[in-house]
Amino acid sequence: MFLKKIAESIKNNHNIIEKREINPIVQYIDKNTFKSTKIFTGIGEDAATIKNNDKYILLTTDRIRTSFIENYPWGAGYSSILVGVDDIYACGGTPLAASLIITVKDQQVCKDILKGISEGSKKFEVPIIRGHTNVHGKNYELSSTMIGEIKKEDYISAGNAQIGDNIILAVDFDGKISKASNLYYDTTTFKKSEEVLMKRKVMNIIAEKHLANASKDISNGGIFGTILQLIKYSNVGADVNLNKIKIPPKLINEGYNLETYIKMYLTTAFILSAAENDCSNLIEIFKEYKLDARIIGKIIKEKDFLRINEGKESIDVIRF
After folding, report:
1. Pairing of strands 141-151, 176-177
2. DSSP string across 202-259
3. Rounded to an integer, what distance in angstroms lies between the CA atom of residue 182 and that of residue 225?
4. 155: which DSSP letter?
5. Are the CB atoms for 104 and 137 separated by under 8 Å?
6. Residue 131: beta bridge partners?
7. Which residues of the chain form CATH 3.90.650.10?
8. Who's near 145: CB < 8 A, 6+ residues apart?
9. Is residue 144 a contact partner of residue 100, using CB atoms and an 8 Å limit?
């Protein structure tokens, strides 16, 4: 019964459904737009990669939900920086600068958004270098584009998980429930810049040591939304042991269970796939940087397919 309940929760997660619904749009753009030999990877990555001598320029774009802006404008501004920063770090890169598009219809909301953006810029040490602003909008809009860089040989793709890899979940347990939502685990706003950057720069070390085959940060799709995207990009499947997923003690004390936890936006967290002989080293590095890291499953050959298990029993969940 427990496996079936979790499987239904994954299939009915609206954030996962939304990501599935955009597949035709992504496929159309990929099929019908101009291609350049300067692009190494494009659609289907946390950050696209543009060839630049011995490095890749990294580029990612995100939109903040209108409801988020309306309910918590400071948090929306802050998150517009956070989401791009984590996309860059997820592939082992270093963020360089951000550009923003802002549309507002209320001056106070605008001020709160700008305060959040400014705090995010300082916290993650990312300058805002360009943007477009409309102060007479009919709706609220906030989008960010983040630029980063990485040495070519160190780049970690979201689409390179290999059959037989272990799936590793790395999470900063030191967090709190955000004002934004009870499904948003805030691990950054109350900490100093040095600490939040340290816990992201661990991905630079993993990239330099070439310990991971694939990686994604965990955002609004939650743990399984992130795994589903990673296996989709990699043309593989995943088999995840629910018993291996540990819930942060702070969330347990707040009454959270596994069904709720796997839906959460975990603001300092990554899903990685790695070869068996690299996993112990990779996990130790995460622990040195104060992230809980553990093996939670395996990459399997069935394309775009998710299976969950409790050890002996298993259930097929979804083909993404």
Report:
1. unpaired
2. HHHHHHHTT--SEEEE--TTHHHHHHHHHHHHHT-EEEEEGGGPPPPHHHHHTT--HH
3. 18
4. -
5. yes
6. 100
7. 2-19+158-319
8. 59, 60, 61, 84, 98, 99, 100
9. yes
> Distance (Å, rounded) from C-alpha 96 to C-alpha 39?
19
Cβ-based neighbour number of residue 28 at 10 Å: 10
In our burial notation (b when 16+ CB lie closer than 10 A, e otherwise), range 83-107 reads: bbbbbbbbbbbbbeebbbbbbbeee
Instruction: Give me the amino acid identity at 308.
Output: I
Q: For the chain, give percent helix, strand, coil, nearest 5.
A: 40, 30, 30
* Alpha-carbon distances of 53 from 49, 149, 152, 153, rounded to whole Å: 12, 11, 9, 12
- Quick one: tokens of 168? 């590793």
Cβ burial 144-183 (10 Å sphere, 16+ → b, else e): bbbbbbbeeebbbbbbbbeeebbbbbbbbbbbebbebbeb
**CATH code, 2-19+158-319:** 3.90.650.10
Tens of pLDDT, residues 224-279: 999 999 999 999 999 999 999 999 999 999 999 999 999 999 999 999 999 999 99
Structurally, at CATH architecture level, domain 36-153 sits in 2-Layer Sandwich (3.30)
Q: Please check the confidence at residue 38 and state whether its pLDDT lies above 90.
A: no
Residue type, 199: K
- Residue extent(s) of CATH 3.30.1330.10 domains in the chain: 36-153
CA dist., res. 255 & res. 223, Å (int): 19
- Phi-psi category of 267—alpha, beta or left, where left has phi over 0 and alpha has psi -120 to 50? alpha
Q: How far apart are alpha carbons 148 and 170 in whole angstroms? A: 22
Nearest to 197 by CA among 188, 184, 186: 188
The C-alpha atoms of residue 242 and residue 308 are separated, in whole angstroms, by 7
The whole-number pLDDT of residue 39 equals 84
pLDDT in tens, 113-171: 999 999 999 999 999 999 999 999 999 999 999 999 999 999 999 999 999 999 999 99
